[in-house]
What does this fold into?
Amino acid sequence: KAGGDPEIFYAHGYWTLKPGEAWVIETEVPECPYWNFQLDNWWMESLDWERKITINKHSATLNDDGTLTIVVAERDPGWGNWIDTCGHETGTALLRWLGAEHHPLPTCRVIDLEAS
It folds into this structure.
């Protein structure tokens, strides 16, 4: 919890990707009025809003079992909910649940897009 609205739970982290790599984020999605994921630069400033750098409860496509897969990469691999690195190789990211009864933590892995 970062202060402010007590109904918001934040998961915040740093990321580094080499060219051709993707950060795959998988999580359960709790029942809640709103959630979102956003990719930011090192100073926690959002990347270019004219590109696909955020996803939320209303724009995401969930998996058949109701879980969420986010794929952060320099290009869209054609599966999951793609988030554009906008040419950055490092940065920060934020996932937040608003008004959720429980707060699932995502599992993360970095994959080689050429090998997958």
User: Anything to note?
Assistant: The beta strands are 8-16, 21-27, 34-40, 54-56, 68-73, 81-84, 90-98, 107-112. The two ends are 36 Å apart (CA to CA). The first strand starts at residue 8 and ends at 16. DSSP finds no helices and eight strands in the chain.
